[in-house]
Design goal:
- There is one protein chain.
- The protein is of the alpha+beta class.
- The chain has two domains: 5-42 and 121-183, 2-Layer Sandwich (Phosphorylase Kinase, domain 1); 46-117, Regulatory factor, effector binding domain (Multidrug-efflux Transporter 1 Regulator Bmrr, Chain A).
- It is built from three helices and eleven strands.
- The radius of gyration is 17 Å and the shape is globular.
């Protein structure tokens, strides 16, 4: 018996949500919600980051680190999202460390292209969107977020940070992505 398109879509959605739900997510508190837009307060986050150059193996460098390729040979749980910041000439990819791991407790990377950083906490404007990880989707999401920020008369500092929550085999129309900008608070 063939599955209907609606049933198949429902199974895929549940499956994708289950995969995403299996990982710890960077903690935050929603201060205000306005449709797809949110103002969130984030605590300081510890993450391991690497520079991205074209289609290099930056994801696998980070993945090897959490898999135990670090000075302590310590395996670290995968978290969501995978963060991306910067532009085509100076991009950074980062994995957030689990919330119980401080910067001083994080193992030292074996790979010189990796570094452990503590990102200061603060308030961020965030837009959640669906679709593939590409420049067109990122630009459209950032434009929507900037328009909302202008309507709300909120000022930002720094560049956008993109968060990707789903594995690459997730159909693009089910992928959870976010773009966020740090908001200046009075």
């Amino acid at each position: 018996m063939a599955l209907s398109l609606a049933a198949l879509t429902g199974l895929l959605a549940v499956g994708c949500g289950t995969v995403r739900a299996g990982y710890e997510t960077a903690p935050y508190q929603v201060v205000r919600a306005d449709g797809k837009f949110e103002l969130r307060d984030y605590p300081a986050l510890v993450w391991v980051e690497t520079s991205v150059h074209g289609s290099d193996d930056s994801f696998m460098r980070l993945f090897r680190f959490i898999g135990g390729d670090n000075a302590a040979k310590q395996k670290i749980s995968m978290t969501t999202p995978v963060y991306m910041a910067g532009d085509n000439t100076n991009a950074t990819m980062a994995f957030v460390m689990p919330k119980n791991m401080s910067a001083s407790a994080a193992p030292k990377p074996n790979d010189a292209k990796l570094s452990v950083q503590e990102i200061p906490g603060g308030r961020f404007a965030v837009l959640r969107y669906r679709g593939g990880h590409n420049a067109k989707n990122e630009a459209a999401a950032l434009a929507k977020l900037n328009n909302w920020l202008a309507q709300e008369k909120l000022k930002t500092t720094g560049g956008p940070i993109y968060g990707y929550f789903d594995p690459p085999w997730t159909p693009t129309f089910f992928r959870r992505n976010e773009v966020m900008l740090r908001v200046l608070t009075p």
